[in-house]
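Batch manifest, entry 17 of 40.
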Amino acid sequence: MASLSIPGIEDPDEFGLSAPVCRTVAAGGDVLLLVPGDSAAARAAAHAQDDDVAAVMEITDVAPVSVPHRIRGRAWIAGWLTPVRNEQRAEAAMLLAERHPVGELLGIGEALQPDPAPGMYGRTAWMMLRLEVGEGAVDDLWGAEAVEPDDFAEAAPDPLVAHEAELLQHLHAAHGEQVHGLCALLGDREAVCGTGGPAVPVSLDRFGLRVRFTDAEQRAFDARFDFPEPVRDVAELRRAMHRLFEAAGVR
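Output type: C-alpha coordinates
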Protein backbone atom coordinates (compact mmCIF):
# COMPACT_ATOMS: atom_id res chain seq x y z
CA MET A 1 0.00 0.00 0.00
CA ALA A 2 1.09 3.56 -0.58
CA SER A 3 0.35 7.09 0.59
CA LEU A 4 1.07 10.39 -1.08
CA SER A 5 1.92 13.45 1.02
CA ILE A 6 2.30 17.04 -0.16
CA PRO A 7 4.00 19.73 1.95
CA GLY A 8 1.38 22.11 3.33
CA ILE A 9 -1.39 19.51 3.30
CA GLU A 10 -1.75 17.95 6.75
CA ASP A 11 -4.12 15.15 5.77
CA PRO A 12 -2.59 13.37 2.75
CA ASP A 13 -4.63 11.11 0.53
CA GLU A 14 -4.30 7.45 1.35
CA PHE A 15 -3.72 5.20 -1.66
CA GLY A 16 -4.08 1.95 0.30
CA LEU A 17 -5.15 -1.49 -0.76
CA SER A 18 -8.84 -0.60 -0.43
CA ALA A 19 -8.63 2.73 -2.28
CA PRO A 20 -9.97 2.86 -5.88
CA VAL A 21 -6.69 3.97 -7.46
CA CYS A 22 -3.83 2.38 -9.34
CA ARG A 23 -0.22 3.27 -10.05
CA THR A 24 2.59 2.10 -12.26
CA VAL A 25 6.05 3.14 -13.46
CA ALA A 26 6.57 4.45 -16.99
CA ALA A 27 9.53 3.48 -19.15
CA GLY A 28 11.45 6.63 -18.24
CA GLY A 29 11.07 6.04 -14.50
CA ASP A 30 8.19 8.43 -13.76
CA VAL A 31 5.43 7.10 -11.51
CA LEU A 32 1.93 7.36 -12.97
CA LEU A 33 -0.96 7.70 -10.52
CA LEU A 34 -4.72 7.62 -11.02
CA VAL A 35 -6.41 9.60 -8.24
CA PRO A 36 -9.95 10.82 -7.52
CA GLY A 37 -10.55 14.22 -9.06
CA ASP A 38 -11.62 15.72 -5.72
CA SER A 39 -8.56 14.42 -3.83
CA ALA A 40 -6.03 16.75 -2.25
CA ALA A 41 -3.34 15.56 -4.66
CA ALA A 42 -5.49 16.33 -7.71
CA ARG A 43 -6.44 19.76 -6.37
CA ALA A 44 -2.84 20.67 -5.56
CA ALA A 45 -1.59 19.59 -8.99
CA ALA A 46 -4.42 21.36 -10.82
CA HIS A 47 -4.04 24.63 -8.91
CA ALA A 48 -0.30 24.72 -9.50
CA GLN A 49 -0.89 25.36 -13.22
CA ASP A 50 2.55 25.07 -14.87
CA ASP A 51 4.47 24.78 -11.58
CA ASP A 52 5.58 21.46 -10.17
CA VAL A 53 4.24 20.32 -6.79
CA ALA A 54 6.72 18.71 -4.40
CA ALA A 55 5.41 15.37 -3.13
CA VAL A 56 6.56 12.25 -1.31
CA MET A 57 5.10 8.79 -1.87
CA GLU A 58 5.62 6.23 0.89
CA ILE A 59 5.18 2.57 -0.01
CA THR A 60 4.69 0.01 2.76
CA ASP A 61 5.41 -3.61 1.87
CA VAL A 62 3.11 -5.86 3.91
CA ALA A 63 3.38 -9.65 3.96
CA PRO A 64 0.30 -11.25 2.34
CA VAL A 65 0.11 -13.95 5.03
CA SER A 66 -1.07 -13.69 8.62
CA VAL A 67 2.00 -13.32 10.80
CA PRO A 68 3.12 -10.95 13.58
CA HIS A 69 5.11 -7.91 12.40
CA ARG A 70 3.83 -8.12 8.83
CA ILE A 71 5.61 -5.04 7.50
CA ARG A 72 8.53 -6.29 5.39
CA GLY A 73 9.92 -2.92 4.42
CA ARG A 74 9.23 0.65 3.39
CA ALA A 75 10.26 2.81 0.49
CA TRP A 76 10.05 6.53 -0.15
CA ILE A 77 10.00 8.36 -3.47
CA ALA A 78 10.29 12.14 -3.46
CA GLY A 79 9.80 14.26 -6.55
CA TRP A 80 7.53 16.62 -8.43
CA LEU A 81 3.87 16.07 -9.21
CA THR A 82 2.16 17.29 -12.38
CA PRO A 83 -1.10 16.38 -14.15
CA VAL A 84 -0.79 14.16 -17.22
CA ARG A 85 -1.98 16.40 -20.04
CA ASN A 86 -3.10 16.39 -23.66
CA GLU A 87 -1.89 13.55 -25.89
CA GLN A 88 0.06 11.99 -23.03
CA ARG A 89 -3.19 11.10 -21.24
CA ALA A 90 -4.12 8.34 -23.66
CA GLU A 91 -0.66 6.75 -23.47
CA ALA A 92 -0.61 6.90 -19.67
CA ALA A 93 -4.17 5.58 -19.38
CA MET A 94 -3.42 2.59 -21.61
CA LEU A 95 -0.29 1.80 -19.60
CA LEU A 96 -2.30 1.87 -16.36
CA ALA A 97 -5.06 -0.25 -17.91
CA GLU A 98 -2.53 -2.78 -19.20
CA ARG A 99 -0.96 -3.27 -15.79
CA HIS A 100 -4.21 -2.95 -13.84
CA PRO A 101 -6.87 -4.55 -16.09
CA VAL A 102 -9.88 -3.11 -14.31
CA GLY A 103 -9.99 0.12 -16.26
CA GLU A 104 -13.67 1.04 -16.10
CA LEU A 105 -13.84 0.52 -12.35
CA LEU A 106 -10.84 2.75 -11.79
CA GLY A 107 -11.87 5.53 -14.12
CA ILE A 108 -9.35 4.79 -16.85
CA GLY A 109 -12.14 4.70 -19.42
CA GLU A 110 -12.99 8.28 -18.50
CA ALA A 111 -9.35 9.32 -18.70
CA LEU A 112 -9.18 8.07 -22.28
CA GLN A 113 -12.00 10.36 -23.38
CA PRO A 114 -11.09 13.72 -24.96
CA ASP A 115 -13.29 15.55 -22.44
CA PRO A 116 -13.67 13.53 -19.21
CA ALA A 117 -17.12 13.58 -17.67
CA PRO A 118 -17.37 15.99 -14.74
CA GLY A 119 -17.42 14.47 -11.30
CA MET A 120 -18.67 15.87 -8.01
CA TYR A 121 -18.46 19.60 -7.42
CA GLY A 122 -17.72 20.23 -11.08
CA ARG A 123 -14.36 18.46 -11.05
CA THR A 124 -13.40 15.53 -13.22
CA ALA A 125 -14.09 12.26 -11.46
CA TRP A 126 -10.53 11.04 -12.00
CA MET A 127 -7.16 12.62 -12.68
CA MET A 128 -3.89 11.08 -13.84
CA LEU A 129 -0.77 12.48 -12.22
CA ARG A 130 2.90 12.04 -13.01
CA LEU A 131 5.48 11.90 -10.20
CA GLU A 132 8.94 12.72 -11.55
CA VAL A 133 11.39 10.97 -9.25
CA GLY A 134 14.06 13.16 -7.66
CA GLU A 135 15.30 10.78 -4.97
CA GLY A 136 14.32 7.56 -3.24
CA ALA A 137 15.14 5.36 -0.28
CA VAL A 138 14.45 1.81 0.88
CA ASP A 139 14.42 0.47 4.45
CA ASP A 140 13.98 -3.30 4.78
CA LEU A 141 15.51 -6.45 6.27
CA TRP A 142 18.84 -5.70 4.62
CA GLY A 143 19.08 -2.13 5.94
CA ALA A 144 18.42 1.39 4.71
CA GLU A 145 19.79 2.64 1.41
CA ALA A 146 19.29 5.58 -0.91
CA VAL A 147 18.11 4.94 -4.47
CA GLU A 148 19.24 7.17 -7.32
CA PRO A 149 16.65 8.19 -9.95
CA ASP A 150 18.62 6.47 -12.75
CA ASP A 151 18.74 3.20 -10.78
CA PHE A 152 15.01 3.47 -10.10
CA ALA A 153 14.28 4.00 -13.79
CA GLU A 154 16.43 1.03 -14.84
CA ALA A 155 15.02 -1.39 -12.25
CA ALA A 156 12.78 -4.19 -13.54
CA PRO A 157 9.90 -5.80 -11.61
CA ASP A 158 10.62 -9.18 -10.10
CA PRO A 159 9.10 -11.88 -12.36
CA LEU A 160 7.19 -13.34 -9.39
CA VAL A 161 5.70 -10.09 -8.12
CA ALA A 162 2.27 -10.69 -9.68
CA HIS A 163 2.06 -14.19 -8.15
CA GLU A 164 3.84 -13.76 -4.82
CA ALA A 165 0.76 -13.35 -2.64
CA GLU A 166 -1.03 -16.45 -3.89
CA LEU A 167 2.19 -18.49 -3.90
CA LEU A 168 2.98 -17.61 -0.28
CA GLN A 169 -0.58 -18.33 0.80
CA HIS A 170 -0.47 -21.68 -1.00
CA LEU A 171 2.87 -22.61 0.60
CA HIS A 172 1.54 -21.71 4.02
CA ALA A 173 -1.79 -23.53 3.64
CA ALA A 174 -0.76 -26.63 1.69
CA HIS A 175 2.94 -27.12 2.39
CA GLY A 176 3.36 -25.99 5.98
CA GLU A 177 5.24 -29.13 7.05
CA GLN A 178 7.70 -28.88 4.16
CA VAL A 179 8.31 -25.20 4.87
CA HIS A 180 8.92 -25.98 8.54
CA GLY A 181 11.29 -28.76 7.46
CA LEU A 182 13.58 -26.18 5.88
CA CYS A 183 14.95 -25.54 9.37
CA ALA A 184 17.14 -28.59 8.68
CA LEU A 185 19.20 -26.29 6.46
CA LEU A 186 19.93 -23.79 9.24
CA GLY A 187 22.87 -25.57 10.86
CA ASP A 188 23.21 -24.48 14.49
CA ARG A 189 19.76 -22.91 14.46
CA GLU A 190 18.01 -26.14 13.44
CA ALA A 191 17.40 -27.20 17.03
CA VAL A 192 15.95 -23.79 17.86
CA CYS A 193 13.29 -23.75 15.15
CA GLY A 194 12.69 -27.50 15.24
CA THR A 195 11.07 -27.38 18.68
CA GLY A 196 9.21 -24.09 18.24
CA GLY A 197 6.00 -22.94 16.66
CA PRO A 198 4.96 -22.72 13.02
CA ALA A 199 7.12 -21.62 10.12
CA VAL A 200 5.47 -19.01 7.91
CA PRO A 201 6.75 -18.07 4.43
CA VAL A 202 6.76 -14.25 4.41
CA SER A 203 8.42 -13.27 1.13
CA LEU A 204 9.33 -14.80 -2.19
CA ASP A 205 11.28 -13.45 -5.15
CA ARG A 206 13.46 -14.70 -7.99
CA PHE A 207 16.42 -15.10 -5.64
CA GLY A 208 14.85 -17.13 -2.85
CA LEU A 209 12.34 -17.68 -0.04
CA ARG A 210 12.17 -15.99 3.37
CA VAL A 211 10.58 -17.90 6.25
CA ARG A 212 9.68 -16.69 9.74
CA PHE A 213 10.32 -19.32 12.41
CA THR A 214 9.19 -19.22 16.04
CA ASP A 215 11.29 -20.86 18.76
CA ALA A 216 10.06 -22.66 21.87
CA GLU A 217 9.90 -19.35 23.77
CA GLN A 218 7.75 -17.77 21.04
CA ARG A 219 10.55 -15.55 19.76
CA ALA A 220 10.46 -15.06 16.01
CA PHE A 221 13.38 -14.91 13.60
CA ASP A 222 13.64 -14.88 9.82
CA ALA A 223 15.77 -17.14 7.65
CA ARG A 224 16.52 -16.70 3.96
CA PHE A 225 16.82 -19.69 1.63
CA ASP A 226 18.50 -18.74 -1.63
CA PHE A 227 17.88 -20.57 -4.87
CA PRO A 228 20.93 -21.93 -6.74
CA GLU A 229 20.19 -19.39 -9.47
CA PRO A 230 17.50 -16.74 -10.01
CA VAL A 231 14.21 -18.10 -11.33
CA ARG A 232 12.49 -16.50 -14.31
CA ASP A 233 8.94 -17.79 -13.95
CA VAL A 234 6.63 -19.96 -11.87
CA ALA A 235 7.75 -23.17 -13.60
CA GLU A 236 11.37 -22.54 -12.62
CA LEU A 237 10.19 -21.61 -9.12
CA ARG A 238 8.53 -25.00 -8.68
CA ARG A 239 11.77 -26.77 -9.59
CA ALA A 240 13.77 -24.53 -7.26
CA MET A 241 11.37 -25.21 -4.37
CA HIS A 242 11.55 -28.96 -4.97
CA ARG A 243 15.33 -28.77 -4.78
CA LEU A 244 15.11 -26.83 -1.51
CA PHE A 245 12.77 -29.40 0.02
CA GLU A 246 14.95 -32.27 -1.18
CA ALA A 247 18.05 -30.62 0.32
CA ALA A 248 16.19 -30.37 3.64
CA GLY A 249 15.07 -34.00 3.45
CA VAL A 250 11.36 -33.18 3.16
CA ARG A 251 8.89 -33.87 0.36
